[in-house]
Amino acid sequence: MQGCGPVVDVLIARNPDPDSSLPLLLRLPIGGGLVFRTSDVWPRTKALFCYPVGVDEWPDDPEIVERVGVRSCVRRGAAIDLVLDRGRENRSQIVFTKARGRDMVFWQSPRTRKQARPNVRTPTARAAGLDDLTIVVDSHERYAYRFSGQQVTTVSRALPCGDYGLIVDDRLVASVERKSLADLVTSLTGGKLRFALAELAALPRAAVVVEDRYSAVFKLDRVRPAVVVDGLAELQVRYPGVPIVFCETRQLAEEWTYRYLAAVHQWIQAEAAARERITSSAPETVDGGVVSAVAEPSTAEVRAWARGAGIDVPDRGRLRPEVWAAWRSARHS
To answer: What is the arrangement of strands in the sheet containing 244-246, beginning at the earlier edge strand?
Structure first.
């Protein structure tokens, strides 16, 4: 572990290389000095990518953008803890990590670290009170959600659309398409997302969940953010029944998917009960002609009938489903 005294400064200077996409140089007072190319003077809204270079790249006559005294500059494992001598925006880390199989360095503050990994605990309570929910995972899905900690049984099979589905009576009734931000942008600009939403819109319920923040769209550098947000808005107008939900992280996107499909399961059950009641109160026909249009009776009428039939019913409140079933059976007998 190596440190530096309070009289040493952190220096940020203009990068003299006009061809570099990182306009600043950051010099840390540790060892013989560490120098990085970076894009800003402080990680205020996001972690800053840093490209390490040799100390000889620091110019002989640097154009200093910012000079700040240092209280502490200590390397701890794969990170450098940096505390500056000022009241605000004084704590940060230089983190050495791997991303996409490559060594990378990021400069992050407590604020940007919390945004990247929000300090939240997802609930373990059962969604919609279900003891168990069977979620079908598309067999082509890579690194699929496991729904660990939840009352979920997963089944792998090919889905006609979406990545996570709910099947009732051998019919796909709901599906959730999972997207990283990069995948969302690629499929949007390439036109694939439009076809995906058209397929999802044919289901009773469907959604797209994005494992990132909506604000991250405005930080894209390889495509104009306006193209992306306009495209998303146009798709939402065209397919209003398929919401595109930004859930910040993979963990929260997985949690949202579980809660959404559980809510659809409950909705399907309620719709089935409603259809049964509507069907039972539909007009009766004989030889194609309407004989009578028997409406569903009131609860008081069924309660009176049940007591006459020797069925125990409460004096007030809802009647049990089996009481209604007995009344319908007696009506059609």
So the answer is: 152-157, 133-138, 164-168, 171-179, 205-210, 244-246
Q: And the tokens for 108? A: 């992050």
The residue assigned the tokens 């953008």 is 65
Query: What class, spelled out in words, does domain 284-332 have in CATH?
Result: few secondary structures
Euclidean distance between CA atoms 146 and 154, whole angstroms: 8
> How far, CA to CA in Å, does 55 sit from each of 3, 27, 94, 98, 314?
18, 8, 17, 22, 85
Cβ neighbour number for residue 117 with a 10 Å cutoff: 10
Domain 127-272 listed as CATH 3.40.50.1820? no
pLDDT digits (tens, 9 = 90+) for 40-49: 999 988 889 9
State pLDDT tens for residues 281-291: 444 444 444 43
pTM, whole model, 2 decimals? 0.51
Strands, DSSP E only, in 216-257? 244-246
Where are the chain's structural domains?
9-116, 127-272, 284-332
Query: Is the distance from CB of 285 to CB of 291 less than 8 angstroms?
Result: yes
